[in-house]
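Homework help board

Subject: predicted structure for assignment chain

Our instructor gave us this sequence and asked us to write out the predicted structure in token form, then describe one feature. I got the tokens but I'm not sure how to describe them. Can anyone check?
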Amino acid sequence: MPGDMPYRTLGHTGERVSAIGLGGWHLAVPNLDEALARRLVRSAIDRGITFMDNSWDYNEGESERRMGTALRDGYRDRVFLMTKIDGRSRAEAARQLDESLLRLQTDRIDLVQHHEVIRYDDPHRMFDEEGANRALLDARAAGKLRYIGFTGHKDPHSHLHTLDVAADHGFRFDAVQMPLNVMDAHYRSFEHLVLPRLVEEGIGVLAMKPMGNGIILKSRTATARECLRYALNLPASVVITGNDSVEVLDQACEVAASFAPMSRDEVSALLAKTASAAARGAFEPFKTSSIFDSTAEHPEWLGEEPERLRQLMS
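My token output:
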């Protein structure tokens, strides 16, 4: 029931969102048909999940299209809708955002995030005069979006650098998305390095990869329920998790509904179980390889380098 779902505040925005968010990538994986995708989205909303995650590049746009279809018939007004764009130039970011609006069948997205900020040049391109953040500011002024954030999965220092570059330009993000899980706590940790700063600055914390796309479960050091509970125990506004079946959705809703803060001893015991497996990032390949880097395979998604830089090279 909707009353069983806990809700949290999204940083300084003051928005109330469900503690569990529905991941958009799984909505168009090969083994999941459109009818089931629609059922999962609507069932999640009926059970109190209000935070919808998606991205312009998920499954060549099919994830957004399926979510847009599922959000018809009044469901759109019941959710906080988020998507991401890959463009780093003003023109490419604007183009991708307009495509997302069409696919999602809405005239306004609640939160749009710069996706996959994993290179140290990314924030400089985003905050260039003709960079992607200018496109998002333009879109916000036009009523196409409400809030602006960024995501990344590679290195917590990239997140800190992006926050610094934004501050240098007088800008504060509304939300930041990053991996937060039982393995991250041990290796190149977003929890230890980035999370405290976000909390201090009142930026909404979006926790992703609580099970690392299922890879963490293969370590046999933590169960799915333990992974979800650990992520929910952190000061995150929402824990985004993928759902590709009714059973997985049921599990996520049940863990959220029964959630109680973990004791210090419980946290210590769980981290002790995962420490050895987590030590070198073997079960977090999104940090240690390019397998999860969609823009590495499609650099054209980023758009052109700033004109002023091209002129310097001529």
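Reply (TA_rk): Your tokens look well-formed. For the description, you could write something like this. The mean pLDDT is 95. That's the kind of observation they're looking for.
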